[in-house]
Amino acid sequence: MELRHVAYAVAVVDAGGVSAAAEAVHVSQPSLSRQLRQLEADLGVTLFERGSGPLRPTRACLALLPALRELLALAGRVEEQTAVHARGGLDRVVVAAPNVTLTDVVSPFVATLGADDPVLDVRPEDSRLPADMLAAGADLAIGTRPPAAPARWRPLATLPVWAYVRPGDPWAGRVQVPLSELVERRLVLLPRPFTSREALEAALTAAGAPAPAGVLEAASGPIAQALAAAGRGVAVVSDDARHDLVPLAVRLPAGAGDAGRLTIRLVVAWDSRAPAQAGLSALADRLAAFVTSRYGG
Amino acid sequence: MELRHVAYAVAVVDAGGVSAAAEAVHVSQPSLSRQLRQLEADLGVTLFERGSGPLRPTRACLALLPALRELLALAGRVEEQTAVHARGGLDRVVVAAPNVTLTDVVSPFVATLGADDPVLDVRPEDSRLPADMLAAGADLAIGTRPPAAPARWRPLATLPVWAYVRPGDPWAGRVQVPLSELVERRLVLLPRPFTSREALEAALTAAGAPAPAGVLEAASGPIAQALAAAGRGVAVVSDDARHDLVPLAVRLPAGAGDAGRLTIRLVVAWDSRAPAQAGLSALADRLAAFVTSRYGG
DNA sequence: CTCGCGCCATGCCCGAGAGGCATGACGTGC
DNA sequence: GCACGTCATGCCTCTCGGGCATGGCGCGAG
């Protein structure tokens, strides 16, 4: 019996099914399904009844459940306690992230931390690759592309890319604009390595849409918005709204996933071999939970 | 953090060092050493001070120790509790073993089991290979050769092979006899597949000793002893003494290991994929502990 | 009635990790 | 100074956890 298996079993009970639990514990549904059976074989007890629909805990499972929860809680307390004894581990955590994310995501999260929590040493980063940030000394890195092993990562959020128009614009009354219409306008975009730009171009390629009628490059999100506010074009960025700009979702052709809107995926990553890895992953989970509650997943 | 790692760390503290702990938890010393470092990295805490001699727990480790022990105790209780709910798992456990082992080892162990323990359904087996016994439906198998993966096994005991002479024999006053002298006598041996026979012949080959002067084959250990009691030769078997026979250790040439005596190794094996695997390994551990306390390892 | 959708299980493959063996570095005691 | 006991490290194997793709299966909508 391993703690991981116990956590999986409890997650299945709480989530009411394997599929839902798999999402909660960040593994695929087949993997979780197999781990469950392994735990059952290991203990020699049938924990779940299979059959129609979501599987349901057996009587034995429910009887064990309190002890299993206690086991997890105790393990959690041990890991917390280690933070106290950690030498140079979680007193300071260096968080690296692109600028947009820092202002819109990390800063609000830092504001929610208590006195017991580690001090987050936030550092803006040019690279979009979490792997590079980790190599540069960051403990946690936020970016758009999952790093390769042995780094670990977790999905953080799926943020929409907005097309910002000023209040007087003909589109100002709409809530979304199709990609095909968007390219007919002059666009204010960020330079290439920025994710909103890359996501837009990838979507254009995938949809077979023509190149935008005109492109104006801005050095940062706020500047792009300022240009849009000045009527120089439609700013396509993922920043939150400024200057009273009106955000429009960018509608993609059907079947493109992400609810048909242009989005960018954020991930949070850390080094699996770093000291206090348990603490880092816990912090990453809290950050993900915070973002989910704030942006609604 | 996984329960296995916790168990390892506690074992190291209790045993006072990696090497001793490795034996206690049945893994090799290098493996245990690495797991420890992994646990430290995972928690972000230095648990042991390395340096001269056996490593010693740090202050942080000692602070965590009670919680770790509690964690293991709780996990143990959960596994015990599962035995109660196990369906057809550990109510009956089929134990297969060679005849000698059954009478001399398993039976006394069965006598020590309480009402809460599973019923051991003991079955004598001709094969010396635990793998065959498991394939034949046994839950636990006792034999002389460790099975291949995915079966799991544990060393059970190292039993001496005795040279039995009757009280009136010229050797009756001795406690041991060298292999070279033994072969000059007429010997009462078991047939080939029996382990005492195979061990003897392997030792003869290894020592370059001549073949025994004369061999009388007996169908079983007790019969061999009966023949020895009748003065028909020296019985070389691993059974406990009967018929007032005098046991002599068989001395091997130096460097042959096993404290220079002819011995056979016993192992207990089970199927890692069997239901109630946790209960089986616990039972195997208890059996090993019993044998150790009875035969002094 | 049938089709589609949401469940979970299974087959396949890959990579990480745990394990063993052999060996090396380091201290201690004879 | 040498033998021995400690733990660490390199190398290899093999299990197992994980993901993707796919297959049954029941239920509900059309």
- Tell me the name of the CATH class of the largest domain in chain A: Alpha Beta
So, CATH architecture of the largest domain in chain A?
Answer: 3-Layer(aba) Sandwich
Largest sheet of chain A: 6 strands, mixed
Q: Name the poorly predicted regions of chain A.
A: none
Identify the quaternary structure here: homodimer
- Strand content of the residues of chain A, in percent? 15-25%
The helicity of chain A comes to 40-55%
Number of strands of chain A: 13
Domain tally of chain A:
3
Number of helices of chain A: 10
| Cross-sheet strand order for the largest sheet of chain A | 8-12-7-11-9-10
> Could you tell me which chain pair has the largest interface and how many residues each side has?
A-B, 39 and 39 residues
- The CATH superfamily of the largest domain in chain A is identified as Periplasmic binding protein-like II
Distance between the terminal alpha carbons of chain A, to the nearest Å? 33 Å
CATH topology of the largest domain in chain A: D-Maltodextrin-Binding Protein, domain 2
What would you say this structure looks like, in words?
Two copies of one chain form a homodimer. Helix content of chain A is about 45%, strand content about 20%. Chain A is α/β, with parallel strands linked by helices. In chain A, α1 (about 5-15) crosses α4 and α2 packs across α3 (about 30-45). Chain A is globular. In chain A, the strands form three sheets. A six-stranded mixed sheet of chain A has the order 8-12-7-11-9-10, sandwiched between helices. In chain A, strands 4-3-5-13-6 form a five-stranded mixed sheet. A two-stranded antiparallel sheet of chain A has the order 1-2. In chain A, α5 (about 100-110) links the parallel β3 (about 90-95) and β4. The interface of A and B includes residues 75 and 77 of A. Chain A binds a DNA duplex (30 and 30 nucleotides) through α3. Chains A, B: Belongs to the LysR transcriptional regulatory family. Chains A, B: InterPro entries: LysR_HTH_N (IPR000847), LysR_subst-bd (IPR005119), WH-like_DNA-bd_sf (IPR036388), WH_DNA-bd_sf (IPR036390). Chains A, B: This is LysR family transcriptional regulator.
